[in-house]
């Protein structure tokens, strides 16, 4: 088996020693090349080249951003576009960009966490400890153990666990400006509070369209590919508990952001895995697609990285998109 280990040396918990241990252990089972990333998009370029060269396995050692880049690189040339279902409601327009109908062969993905949250890895049951995660990966390789996972696709960007428009994307953008080696839950909390009281782009109205439903209005929207959606330190954040890598997308949107509404749903997200309810909540599970239109440009994030600003985004669920060694 030919494999490439992609290491982000700037990730929160990656170290030169940990990289060397991981590389040495992998090299005992596969023919291995090691690449350290040194610019944004480097991991994507390496993974895309690996897919073109017929590499069998690409291992991402870094945070969720590194994993997302590798996933997008692996699938960059593997998708056959097709016509998606039409977003529902009498006011819906036929989406102009299609979701994929077929995915060709791509290398398998391995993950050894090295970031601060590691949402994707934790959702797969991979240890947050890099040494234990390395042992899990080697054991899976030795026993030929893998699983197929579904992914989300939004505006041409693949996401493994979450994407969103509005408040959460504002938070991601604010954190990105200050993020260093020590990304903490406190940093995210401060960014959330500041983005709530001083939204950088205001609060443009969002219109949500899904197949078979009337359009719904919102001010912020989270689209999940699995649950938990994120973590606050050690505590999981649950928005769509029924969402998983084997189901369609989960939608969690609020059409009001008054403090009582926000406190209610934040508390529910942190203390229970039960389905949330509320008169300001727009929530659905197992969706094949979602379209969100914004009255004015709003921030758009994918897997915790700010992509930019958008006035419309189509989200697609893509079942069995990738093989993960886990």
What's the topology here?
Layout: E1 2-7, H1 16-27, E2 31-36, H2 42-52, E3 57-62, H3 64-74, E4 79-81, E5 100-103, E6 108-113, H4 119-123, H5 130-142, E7 147-154, E8 157-159, E9 162-165, H6 167-178, H7 185-197, E10 206-209, E11 216-218, E12 220-224, E13 230-232, E14 235-237, E15 249-254, H8 259-271, E16 281-287, E17 289-302, E18 305-324
Helix pairs in contact: 1-5, 2-3, 6-7
Explain this structure to me?
The protein has eight helices and 18 strands. With 326 residues, it is an alpha+beta fold. Strands 7, 8, 9, 10, 11, 12, 15, 16, 17 and 18 form a ten-stranded antiparallel sheet that branches. Helix 1 (16-27) packs parallel to helix 5. The two termini are 16 Å apart. Residues 83-97 have low confidence and may be disordered.
What percentage of amino acids are in beta strands?
25-35%
| Rg (C-alpha, Å) | 19 Å
Low-confidence stretches: 83-97
Mean pLDDT: 89
- Specify the helix fraction band: 25-40%
Largest sheet: 10 strands, antiparallel
């Amino acid at each position: 088996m030919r494999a490439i280990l992609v290491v982000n040396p700037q990730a929160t918990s990656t170290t030169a020693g940990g990289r060397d241990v991981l590389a040495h252990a992998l090299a005992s089972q596969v023919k291995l090349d090691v690449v350290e990333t040194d610019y944004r998009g480097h991991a994507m370029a390496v993974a895309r080249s690996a897919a073109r060269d017929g590499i069998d396995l690409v291992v991402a050692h870094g945070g969720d951003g590194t994993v997302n880049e590798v996933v997008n690189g692996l699938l960059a040339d593997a998708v056959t576009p097709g016509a998606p279902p039409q977003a529902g409601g009498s006011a819906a327009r036929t989406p102009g960009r299609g979701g994929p109908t077929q995915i060709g062969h791509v290398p398998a993905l391995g993950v050894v966490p090295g970031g601060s949250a590691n949402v994707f890895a934790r959702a797969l049951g991979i240890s947050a400890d890099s040494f234990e995660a390395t042992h899990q990966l080697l054991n899976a390789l030795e026993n030929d153990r893998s699983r197929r996972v579904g992914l989300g696709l939004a505006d041409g960007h693949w996401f493994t666990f979450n994407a969103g428009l509005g408040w959460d994307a504002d938070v991601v953008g604010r954190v990105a400006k200050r993020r260093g080696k020590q990304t903490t839950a406190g940093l995210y909390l401060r960014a959330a509070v500041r983005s709530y009281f001083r939204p950088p782009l205001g609060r443009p109205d969002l219109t949500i369209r899904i197949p078979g439903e009337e359009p719904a209005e919102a001010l912020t929207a989270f689209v999940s590919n699995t649950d938990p959606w994120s973590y606050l330190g050690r505590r999981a954040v649950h928005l769509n508990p029924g969402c998983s890598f084997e189901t369609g997308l989960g939608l969690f949107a609020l059409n009001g952001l008054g403090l009582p509404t926000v406190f209610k749903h934040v508390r529910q997200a942190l203390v229970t895995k039960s389905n949330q309810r509320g008169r300001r909540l727009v929530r659905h599970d197992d969706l094949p697609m979602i379209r969100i239109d914004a009255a004015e440009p709003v921030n758009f994030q994918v897997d915790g990285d700010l992509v930019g600003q958008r006035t419309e985004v189509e989200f697609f669920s893509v079942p069995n998109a990738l093989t993960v060694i886990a």
